[in-house]
Amino acid sequence: MSDAQGQQSSAQQELDQAKQAQQQATQNDPAVKDAQAAVDQAQQQVDNQQQVVNDAQTVVNNDAQNVQQKSDAVNQASQAVDQAKQAATDATNRAASQKTDEAQNTINNLESQGKNQASQNLDNQINNVSGQVTDAQDDVNNTNAKIGDLQNQVKNLQDQETNTQADPNIKAVPNGVIDTSKSLLENASRNNLWAPMDLSQNNGNIIDQNIYVSPDNDKGARNPNAGKGADASLSEYDNYFNTNFDLVNQQTGMTDAQKQELAILMLNQINHAREQRGLKPFVMTEQKYQQAQVRASQHSAEILDHNENDIMTAFGQDQYECLAYIPVNGGSNMLSMLYNAESTLSSMLNADASSDWGHRENFLEDTGSLSANAAFGMHLTDDGQYYVLTFDYDLSNPDSTPNMMDRIAQYQAMGPITGDAHTVDNSAQINDLNNQISNLQNTLASQQSHLNDLTTQLQNLQAQKANVQFDLSQLNADQQAEYNNAKHTLDTINDWKNGQLANINKDGHVQDALNKLSSAKRNYKSAQDTQTQDKANLKQAEDGLAQLNHVLATKQTALGTAEQKANAQANQVVKDKQAKLDAIKSHINDLQNAIATTKAAISNTQAQLDKDNQKIADIKNGQKPAKPDTGKDEGKGATTPTNPTTPAKPDTGKDEGNKGTTTPTTPTTPAQPDHGNASISGQAGHKPATSDNGSQIADSNANSQSTTDSQSTINKPTIVLPTNGKESGAATQGQYINVVSKDSVAAQAGIQAPAAPETTSVTFGTKEGTMMTREEYKAQQANLPQTGNENSKAVVALGVLAGMFGLGLASKGKKEF
User: At 693, phi and psi to the nearest 5?
Assistant: First the structure.
């Protein structure tokens, strides 16, 4: 090893000198210098041409900006053409619009007159029948009202008879009592439960008959007394809300009687406001009220449209009218409904700027000495969220039906409601009233039948009127001439307008814009042509650059060739010196491996020798050697050992069942060691390679599976000799020894071995698996420094032989799983 290391130092110096000579030979060669000059010249040409390419690229980039500018100019000119065309079109349309509007208005008016002329007779019939329907409806309503009034009288008389004790419907409220079986209007009127006109003078009552109206000079002013009245949320007012007091059905809405009641309460508030201004109160007759209900049920009222035809249909003449909504939410009884309605009225009186205060003016109209006939109408919308509220009046004399506003005074005349106990016999009055009710019900049936006939007749007439179409013959001669002239004018103007629009490009402004567009397009085309030429120039420059780069590459190749020729001889010297150095390094590596292998073999063989000596001592002392464990239950008595020539098959991880043993195949290459686990093939954590004609040797913990005694025959095992017991370092540099036969190894070691059927040679190899013959191995060993003697050789051979016979070498390395 020392000699080899000295040779390595000398070889390294020779290699360094050869490399220095190689470098000097290359630098001083004339051909190399000429080739280098040619490369430098070609590189300069490439650099110059690259500048030409860069300049051409700059021109192309500038062309792109110029083309974009010209393109933008074309777009702007195109927009200017569109704007000029639009301006000319607008001017033409304006010029034609006035004439066409006049002609079209004439046509529309004449067609409307023609339709009106044609439907005049139907209108007369409809008005006639509508009046009859109204009269019939009034008759029905009056009869119903009379029946209802008589029924109420009967009920009151019956209540008087049955209530011999305190009436359970009588509930205490501030300032008196209420009778929950009677209406809100009757209770307020008879027991004077009205809140004061000035809320700051709180009297404890919560039923309003007044409504605040802001001053005319400050119509949007807030009520200065808002919030100063009685607080209806206090517990003493619970009887107004917590009992069945004038309840409103939340599914079907107010009954007709409740609608009348609310209409009276609202108009009472309006009349008090009028009274404060010195205006005459409105009258609401029963007939007017019924007409208002018809008006509220019309679709135009629901969409807040003052449709004159519908107003005419409902009232027979035009009316002053207000339309609004009353929210249903919270209106569970009539007192709550009054509050909701009062909010709507207050908005129309004091927050009506968006309607130019038209609602306010209607409510506060100065009728002079006339008693204007007014009525509120109410109709529940289909979604049940609102009541459509209508207010209509005219300045004609009220009809002969009773004024519903008189009911307040009539209730007051009945006297206050009390809860005193009483006993009364009203049977005679009740019988008389029931007879009147029966007679009125018969009359009502006849009136209802007549009303149905008239309603059907009215609907038929209205359907006929809806289908009336315009016919020129419906106009007189003058109207027909005027109609034809308007038609001719309209056609003439339309022809002129269409002609102007068809030749819009002839307009001066449009023509000027088109000329500018053409100029912009020419400039754009010129810029594109320049860009195309400059791109061609760039392409030509780039092609020239590519050619020069090719020339440069050729020169560089020639330079490389010249350098190779110049240092060819020097290169060979360097290669020879490098080869010599590599051979010495390889020799040193082999020596290191042999030393490590020998040390490990001596250690393991000594351990095995100790075991064998112990066995010999046991035999001399008369002890029978322990039989190797075969893994089988021997039972009683001795059995014949298994065939030693067929070792047990190693565990491959598969379930073999009861198939028995198989003949191992001969491995063709040495097994690779498991450096992460044990050093000897077959130990725990290592997965032995499967061979074609031989079994693998188990580790020292499983020797009984590979042999039955020391004389068992092993078929060509692959043994990895451990080195110094470590898991890395020298151990990984050990050689692999493929033992081909026992007698060949014994012969090498100078030991007589048992006869065996094989006479093949032992082969040795490096870790990489390079194979050599026994003679080559001996020759190599002869060249290596010998530090042992013949006895050490015998020890090594003995260790190998012991491994062959199943006397495994102990491995001291740790196991990793």
Answer: -145, 45
Phi then psi for residue 466, to 5 deg, are: -65, -25
CA dist 582 to 575, 764, 784, Å? 10, 22, 17
**How far apart (Å, rounded) are the C-alpha atoms in residues 712 and 83?**
112
Whose tokens are 């009203």? That residue is 426
**DSSP annotation string for 649-718:** PPP-SS--TT----PPBPPSSPPPP-TTS-SSTTSTT--PPPPSB-PPPP-TTSGGGT-SSTT----S-E
- Per residue in 592-644, pLDDT tens? 999 999 999 999 999 999 999 999 999 999 876 555 555 555 444 444 444 44
CA distances for 623 relative to 607, 620, 639, angstroms: 21, 7, 20
What is the C-alpha separation between 765 and 773, in angstroms, rounded? Answer: 9
Q: Confirm if 572 and 83 have CB atoms less than 8 A apart.
A: no
Q: Which tokens go with 10?
A: 């000398």
- Give the three-class secondary structure for 374: strand
Distance CA(724)–CA(732), nearest Å, equals: 10
Cα separation, 679 vs 675, whole angstroms: 7
Closest C-alpha among 60, 81, 65, 87 to residue 519: 81
Edge-to-edge strand list for the sheet holding 763-765: 718-720, 736-738, 763-765, 771-772
Beta bridge partners of 763: 738
Identify the H or E element spanning 119: helix 30-162
Residue 292, both tokens: 């208002």
User: What does pTM read for this prediction?
Assistant: 0.38
pLDDT tens profile 318-363 = 999 999 999 999 889 999 999 999 999 999 999 999 999 999 999 9
pLDDT of the residue at 95: 78
The pLDDT of residue 576 is above 70: yes
H helix or E strand, kind and range, residue 744? helix 742-749
pLDDT category at 794 given cuts 50, 70, 90 is: very low
Amino acid at 577: K
For helices 334-350 and 184-191, the axis angle rounded to 10 degrees is 80
Which string of DSSP letters, residue by residue, matches 501-548? Answer: HHTGGGSHHHHHHHHHHHHHHHHHHHHHHHHHHHHHHHHHHHHHHHHH
Q: From CA 653, how far away is CA 649, in angstroms rounded?
A: 11
- Residue 401 DSSP class: S
**pLDDT tens, position by position, 106-125:** 888 988 888 787 778 788 88
Contact 697, 804 (CB under 8 A): no
The residue among 165 and 748 whose pLDDT is bigger is 165
pLDDT of residue 627: 56
Tokens of 596: 């490590």
- What residues are paired with 665 via a beta bridge? 693
What gap in Å lies between CA 158 and CA 425, rounded to an integer?
A: 9
The mean pLDDT value of the chain amounts to 80
pLDDT exceeds cutoff 90 at 163: no
**pLDDT at position 680:** 33
**In this structure, which amino acid lies at residue 140?**
V
**Is the separation of the CB atoms in 665 and 649 below 8 Å?**
no
Distinct helix (H) and strand (E) counts, the chain? 18, 9
Return the SS3 of 394: strand
pLDDT greater than 90 at residue 26: no
CB of 416 within 8 A of CB of 190?
yes
Number of C-beta neighbours around residue 316 at 10 A:
15
Instruction: Specify the pLDDT at position 634.
Output: 45
The identity of residue 207, as a single letter, is I
Q: What is the pLDDT of residue 469?
A: 80
* Helix (H) or strand (E) segment spanning residue 381: none
**Could you give the CA distance from residue 238 to residue 633 in angstroms, rounded to a whole number?**
103
Confidence of residue 177 (pLDDT cuts 50, 70, 90): very high
What is the rounded distance in angstroms from the CA atom of residue 3 to the CA atom of residue 458? 139
